[in-house]
Write the structure tokens for this entry.
Amino acid sequence: MSSSTSTFTAHRTDGQPLHPHEDLIGHLLARQVHRKELRRKKPRCEVCGKKPAVSFSMFYPGYRWLFVCMCTAEDEHGPWVSIKDYCGSQKFRDDKDRHIGEKRAEYSESFFAAVARYVDAGGVLRQ
Ligand SMILES: [Zn+2]
């Protein structure tokens, strides 16, 4: 009987071997902290970059949607959507998405692009 050293290799549930120096738990926890930080961060207004955005607002010409704070209030002459309402309720969002989806393509695509930028900036769409 040979007395070879056991070469135990940890595997992830998907069968891929772990790098022996990989601190998996630390890595996972760091990701969790990062997600929490993103959630705490309220995306800033796309115009002034200073205050948290409070609405998705459409600007003429060109049906251009931006997420903004109150700094643009005097320049807004188009529709707007409350970020609190839109991001706070799946029901509100579904109704609004359906309504906006029926508008012309430049209008709806710009709106959904603004929502995507908002999420990329750390905005959270709650259920
Ligand atoms: Zn602003």
Q: What stands out?
A: Strands lie at 55-59, 64-68, 80-82.
